[in-house]
Structures are given as structure tokens and as C-alpha cells.
Design a protein that fits this description.
21% of the residues lie in helices and 32% in strands. The chain is α+β, with helices and mostly antiparallel strands and 308 residues long. The strands form four sheets. A six-stranded mixed sheet has the order 3-2-1-4-6-5, sandwiched between helices.
């Protein structure tokens, strides 16, 4: 078991990411990974057990919203209490799922490493798996994404493997939470970041870099000495992650200061405000989650620029 108080390894179990190994052809989001194996446990439960052997940290589970009860029941059967269960309303790629897990962990674990585990794998040599994990921690803590791989025994076209014994990534990887959150702000390879222009506001600017049916990710820059309106939203919640600078936050009756690599959650309907009281620009990532994400879902309670 890997233990490190300064660099905890937190398992992120991707409950609905089957398709890499056990199911070579694409499938709809079924519940195959919850079905019992000869061992009496499901693939999902085997994955959770493997995580418990590898690290003492409680897992974060990302699942389809329709599978939440299955996840809770199977975790209860294992007597495992998760750190969080993140439910997705619609299917997305692995990156948003890992980002949501990183946000769910909270800002009190800034040095955490995320051990990302798809739930469709069986691992026979657990001591070797733990040994490989321990050997990967230094590189992951230094900012690298460490991918775990296997050597295929035979060519398999369904996995993109046609000849030879080339290593094949099996979907498991180790990455720093800090790196995941930083990449939400700057990812030069994303077309969305290049295609969408910067929107200017009296307090600074924002740029929408990822938009989905129920989520939106923005890069926000607040100029020195400026602040946004005191506002609330009726149909969306928000996660803020400070990437550079210092943010002064009002959330309901609470006032606090956030530094780089710290985050805060703004629930639906909660009055909130963001301010940059420093002499340098404040950079942060805002992740919006909700049924409606339009700019008109803003109720301004107070504003320095006369927009109430």
C-alpha cells in the first residue's frame, strides 16, 4: 500500500468508462461492470478493492446519474465510504470526468495525486500493480501524466493492436490534481480556446473554452483592484479554481481569500462575489454546471458599474 501524507494518492474510479479493454466494441452506457463475476464481485467492485489495496485514501467515483443507486449499493456491500460520488447527467469524455473528480476532492488536498481507474479491468498481479504505482509517484508529483500499460499477448484489432508486442495503454494513469486543474485554464491543443473570442467586461475579461449541454468552462481574468457584481444564479452552480493571483471571495454570509491552486464551490441560488484586491491580474477557471447556462441567468444584487 502506498502512503504519503504530503502526496496522497486518491483513487478516481470511472464507473461508466468501459470500452477500453473488456468491451472492444463501443457500447451504450449499460451496467455490465456491475454484474457479478465468478468471484462474487463485479468489475466495479474489483476496481474499488484494487484501489483499497493500493492506497488508504477513500475513492472518488464518477458515474452516470442513473447508476448512482447501483454504485452506492455495491460500495456499501464492500463497506467502503467514498470521498465523493460525482454523477454525470450526460456522457462525456474522460477529461471532464477527471476534472470533476479533481474539483470534488476540494482545496484541502492541494498535493494530491489522482489514480484514475476505469472500471472494466481485472488485474491479476496486485503486488506488481502497487509496486508500479509507488514507482510512478515521483514523476506524477513533478507534473507528468504517468500512463500504465500492458503487453498484449496477441494482436487485437478491436484495441487498435495489429502486430508485435507494443505496450498498450490500459486506461489507468496517475496525474497530479494541480496539473488537471491547471490544464482547465490553458490547453493550446483545444480548438474551442482558439475559436471563441475574449469577452471584455468592466472588471476584466472571460473566454469560454468548453461548452456542453449541461456544463461550461471559462477562463476568467480580473484586473487589479476590480470586482464582479454581487450576484446569484437560479439555474446553475459554479466551481472556481484560482490558477494565478489571490481572490477575495464572498459566498453567502462567508468571506474568504483563495490563493493559487485553491477552489470554492458556489451552490445554485447562493449570493456570491469575486474580487481582485491585489496589484496583479487574477486568473481563474470557472466550471458551470446546470440545466441553463445563459448569461441572462444573473441576478445582480450590487454592482460597482451601475448594472443592477
Amino acid at each position: 500500500m502506498v502512503t504519503d501524507e504530503l502526496t496522497p494518492v486518491i483513487p478516481v474510479v470511472l464507473s461508466d468508462r468501459a470500452g477500453t479493454m473488456s468491451w472492444p466494441t463501443p457500447r451504450e452506457r449499460g451496467a455490465e461492470h456491475f454484474l457479478p463475476l465468478p468471484s462474487g464481485l463485479s468489475l466495479f467492485q474489483e476496481t474499488v478493492c484494487r484501489a483499497q489495496i493500493a492506497t488508504p485514501e477513500a475513492p472518488v467515483v464518477v458515474c452516470d446519474v442513473s447508476h448512482r443507486c447501483l454504485v452506492e449499493d455495491q460500495l456499501e456491500h464492500l463497506r467502503v465510504t467514498p470521498a465523493a460520488i460525482v454523477c454525470e447527467p450526460v456522457a462525456r469524455s474522460i477529461a471532464p470526468a477527471v476534472a470533476a473528480a479533481a474539483l470534488a476532492i476540494g482545496e484541502n488536498r492541494p498535493g494530491a495525486l489522482l489514480l484514475v481507474l476505469p472500471s472494466d479491468h481485472l488485474v491479476g498481479d496486485l503486488p506488481q500493480f502497487v509496486e508500479n504505482l509507488a514507482a510512478s509517484m515521483q514523476a506524477a508529483a513533478a507534473g507528468y501524466l504517468v500512463a500504465f500499460a500492458i503487453t498484449p499477448s496477441t494482436p487485437e484489432a478491436g484495441l487498435g493492436q495489429r502486430q508485435g508486442r507494443t505496450l498498450r495503454h490500459n486506461g489507468t494513469f496517475l496525474v497530479s490534481r494541480r496539473v488537471v486543474l491547471a490544464e482547465l485554464l490553458r490547453d493550446p491543443g483545444r480548438r474551442e480556446a482558439d475559436a471563441i473570442s475574449v469577452v471584455r467586461r468592466p472588471w476584466g475579461s472571460y473566454q469560454s473554452v468548453d461548452v456542453g449541454r449541461h456544463h461550461q468552462v471559462k477562463r476568467i481574468v480580473v484586473d487589479p483592484g476590480q470586482r464582479l457584481s454581487l450576484q446569484r444564479h437560479r439555474q446553475r452552480a459554479e466551481h472556481w479554481v484560482v490558477v494565478q493571483g489571490t481572490a477575495s471571495i464572498v459566498r453567502g454570509e462567508e468571506s474568504r481569500v483563495l490563493h493559487e491552486n485553491e477552489s470554492v464551490f458556489i451552490p445554485v441560488g447562493c449570493a456570491h462575489r469575486l474580487e481582485n484586491a491585489c496589484s496583479t491580474p487574477l486568473h481563474l477557471v470557472e466550471v458551470q454546471i446546470g440545466d441553463y447556462l445563459g448569461e441572462d441567468d444573473i441576478e445582480r444584487l450590487a454592482d460597482d458599474y451601475g448594472r443592477t
